[in-house]
TrEMBL record:
GO biological process: cell division; cell wall organization; peptidoglycan biosynthetic process; regulation of cell shape
Binding annotation for ATP: 127-133
Protein keywords: ATP-binding, Cell cycle, Cell division, Cell shape, Cell wall biogenesis/degradation, Cytoplasm, Ligase, Magnesium, Nucleotide-binding, Peptidoglycan synthesis
Record field: compositional bias (Low complexity): 506-529
Name listed for the protein in its UniProt record: UDP-N-acetylmuramoyl-L-alanyl-D-glutamate--2,6-diaminopimelate ligase
Family note: Belongs to the MurCDEF family. MurE subfamily.
Binding site for meso-2,6-diaminopimelate: 398, 422-425, 479, 483
Gene: murE
Domain Mur ligase C-terminal, chain residue ranges per copy: 346-481
Domain Mur ligase central intervals: 125-323
Length: 537
């Protein structure tokens, strides 16, 4: 989906843009040509745009320059290889040539969309898990306190009441600056956004200085993109440099947070939820009611409650509360606003059957790392008096090393694990399931393991297993959360875990009492149900 563009803007001349980034000019064409927008996707070019033709892992953008020209691009930004390709294809557009075009896109986009002088208060959130949740908590609390907020993240971009479904967690710099310009145009005062490690590595937030940068935690993910955990950490740490932020708020519950404090280039405030750990802000959880906690720091105490289920949401809520304080909100206002349930789509989202007559708890969650699977299941365990059943798979063409860990976490905590497909993308789905199962089998536990390729059938099997476990059983369908499609071999089939789970509950309602047919085996023996891979909804 194309990003919104600001309604009106002055054009920048190609000459000033060339000077800004010290580019060489490839043709003798008119340097006073006006540029009114910028994109790196030939399919999104609008008349007057600068088309950034970037080298990529799969293609070189210059090979799509003719398409960009046909759509009305006024000029091209590219590298030497791209310039060569433009000549070969006889694309007659003026071209700015730089060594690393991606690295100058932030500055160019900021100039073109006039976002260099930022009037928005910017909050950026990074970390492996909890970015989306914390972003919703901060932005919805700010809205309760009367702010005009914007939100950019995995699920959507929100500008006032407008909601635009996201393609990626953090938009490319070209789209980001256009979105920020639209937010300014609509009098937004604060923008809360998720900043992924891909974004930090790929210059997507260049030209943005966050008033406050948050770090939630770091655990294994994205090792298909980053060489190792150190490299992944270094990408995240870039947010905590003067280039990108004024100050930080770091959760020091894990070692990466503690290391970040040491290497941060900007002043940081620290927070911990661990008992007896030291930080500027500490959290003491109420033993009777674990969603309640006391937040202490700066000589003050706040009695707070997490409006979202799950122990890990205490950390997210505490981070959001301290962020609000650092943004200048009063303690009373923070206590009031933080109680608001922001409804984070697909995160611990409860699903009920149409009749809502269930005696089991069914949730859809976005856990897709070993750490998140563990956190999500540990959070559900106390609510389980029957059987805890989890449905999970792992994404294809993404970090392969996390699959076993996800399986291990699932088998370590759930009574029954239904291993299924997530987004197989270009990979053989059965080999992804095999890796998850391998991890699950490595755990010394008595949990039942079932392999069901088709995600719809897997969800139904999980509901059946949970019913079999009696009242107080819990079904958790994790990994896809808010997603509304399943990507198999380049095709995205409509698929929504929440709808599927509801349908499974309804179907099970219809055959109430009929459950109980054999199905699961123990950890030593896996039942495989062959089902059609296709899961079109
Ligand atoms: C690894 C990664 O992030 N790759 C991104 C990168 O791809 P790339 O540089 O290899 O580009 P490419 O596909 O070879 O194409 C080269 C150029 O040709 C352009 N092109 C291509 C085809 C065409 O018809 N027209 C056209 O102009 C492309 O826009 C690109 O500029 O630049 C592309 C253009 O913007 C992105 O689409 C692509 O995101 C891929 C699809 C992706 O899946 N990224 C994910 C992993 C990602 O970014 N995830 C993070 C983290 C998620 C989280 O943890 O929350 C996120 O922020 O979403
Ligand atoms: N603070 C946390 N610690 C550990 N696990 C968490 C935490 N917050 C959320 N989770 C788990 O991680 C999942 C993803 O949470 P969320 O979407 O908020 O994170 P994210 O960082 O935005 O993830 P992504 O990078 O995929 O967008 C949740 O569904 C939950 O299972
Ligand atoms: N933002 C995450 C999403 C993963 C979700 C999971 N459903 C998958 O497809 O792997 C990523 O880009 O790794
Ligand atoms: Mg997210």
């Amino acid at each position: 989906m194309s990003a919104p563009r600001p309604a009106s803007r002055d054009s920048s001349s190609l000459r000033e843009l060339a000077l800004l980034v010290d580019a060489s000019i490839e043709t003798s064409a008119d340097l006073d040509v006006g540029v009114t927008g910028v994109t790196l996707d030939s399919r999104a070019v609008q008349p007057g745009d600068l088309y950034a033709a970037l080298p990529g892992a799969r293609a070189h953008g210059a090979d799509f320059a003719a398409q960009a020209q046909a759509a009305g691009a006024s000029a091209v930004l590219t590298d030497a290889d791209g310039a060569e390709r433009l000549r070969a294809a006889a694309v007659a557009l003026p071209a700015l040539v730089v060594e690393q075009p991606r690295a100058v896109l932030g500055a160019l986009s900021a100039r073109i969309y006039d976002t260099t002088e930022q009037s928005l208060t910017m909050v950026g959130i990074t970390g492996t898990n909890g970015k989306t949740t914390t972003a919703y908590l901060v932005s919805s609390a700010l809205a309760v306190l009367g702010h005009r907020t914007g939100l950019i993240g995995t699920v959507e971009t929100r500008i006032g009441d407008e909601r635009i479904k996201s393609v990626r967690t953090t938009p490319e710099a070209t789209d980001l600056h256009a979105i920020l310009a639209v937010m300014e145009e609509r009098d937004t005062d604060t923008c809360v956004m998720e900043v992924s490690s891909h974004a930090l590595s790929q210059h997507r937030v260049d030209g943005v200085v966050f008033d406050l940068a948050l770090f939630t935690n770091l655990s294994q993910d994205h090792l298909d993109f980053h060489a190792d955990m150190e490299d992944y950490f270094s990408a995240k740490a870039r947010l905590f440099s003067t280039e990108h932020s004024l100050r930080g708020l770091v959760c020091v519950d894990d070692v990466w947070g503690r290391r970040l404090v040491e290497r941060s280039g900007v002043p940081v405030t620290t927070l911990t939820t661990l008992p007896d750990a030291d930080a500027d802000w500490t959290v003491t959880v109420d033993e009777q009611e674990p969603s309640r906690f006391v937040l202490r720091g700066r000589g003050i105490e706040l009695d707070l409650r997490s409006a979202l289920p799950g122990d890990f949401n205490v950390a997210n809520t505490a981070m959001a509360a301290v962020a609000l304080l650092l943004l200048g909100e009063e303690t009373d206002a923070v206590s009031r606003a933080i109680l608001t349930d922001p409804h984070v789509p697909g995160r611990m989202e409860r699903v009920t059957s149409s009749t809502d007559g269930d005696d089991l708890l069914a949730v859809v969650d976005y856990a897709h790392t070993p750490d998140a699977v563990e956190a999500a299941l540990a959070a559900l365990r106390p609510s389980t008096t029957g059987r805890l059943v989890v449905v999970l798979g792992a994404g294809g063409d993404r970090d392969r090393g996390k699959r076993q860990g996800m399986g291990r976490a699932a088998a370590g905590l759930a009574d029954a694990v239904v291993v299924t497909d997530d987004n197989p993308r270009g990979e053989d789905p059965s080999s992804i399931r095999a890796a998850v199962l391998e991890g699950a089998r490595s755990v010394d536990s008595s949990s039942t393991l079932v392999e069901v390729g088709g995600r719809r059938e897997a969800i139904r099997e999980a509901v059946r297993l949970a019913r079999e476990g009696g009242p107080g059983s819990v079904v958790a369908v994790v990994g896809k959360g808010h997603e509304t499609g399943q990507e198999v071999a380049g095709v995205v089939h409509p698929f929504d875990d929440r709808e599927e789970l509801r349908a499974a509950l309804d179907a099970a309602d219809g055959e109430a009492g009929a459950a109980g047919a054999a199905g699961g085996t123990t950890n030593d023996e896996t039942t495989t149900t062959d089902t059609d891979e296709e899961t079109t909804g």
